[in-house]
Write a structure and sequence with these properties.
This protein is α/β, with parallel strands linked by helices. The protein has four helices and five strands.
């Protein structure tokens, strides 16, 4: 299974170190590609054609870590790669998606949301592998 994260803007300090940390940790569990685009208009064409399209949206569905792990496993069982789309400060403007995911009801800076997403992907893989993780 491969995860693609298509994000508006380049990751910058103070988030860049955490982004690199979780990408490295996740690399032992899954293939991850980060695609950074300049603006929302470039998002659509960078989404892999056959991937399950997940838009991060404050109004999307929320999961606890274990439910998110199960959701990811269902995608893996279906044989589909997953593409997470993170818009800029004003969202994505994308019309279609297979799923809308919320990281919680609070508004997060989009770069922090990217770090939280990577951390939750790593945590989900730890859960699925039956390895210890913090609740």
């Amino acid at each position: 299974m491969k995860y693609t994260v298509v994000a508006v803007g380049k990751i910058r300090p103070p988030y860049a170190d955490d982004d690199a940390h979780y990408r490295k940790m996740l690399g032992g569990h899954a293939r991850v590609e980060i695609v950074e685009v300049r603006d929302e208009e470039q998002l659509e064409r960078r989404i892999p054609e056959r991937a399950h399209r997940v838009v991060l949206d404050a109004g999307g569905r929320t999961y606890d870590s274990e439910a998110f792990a199960r959701w990811l496993e269902e995608r893996r069982q279906a044989g589909r790669d997953v593409c997470f789309v993170l818009g800029g400060a004003f969202g994505t403007g994308l019309e279609g998606s297979d799923h809308r995911l919320s990281l919680g009801p609070m508004t997060l800076p989009h770069q922090l949301a990217r770090v939280v997403l990577l951390e939750q992907l790593f945590r989900a893989h730890k859960i699925l592998a039956g390895e210890p993780y913090h609740h």
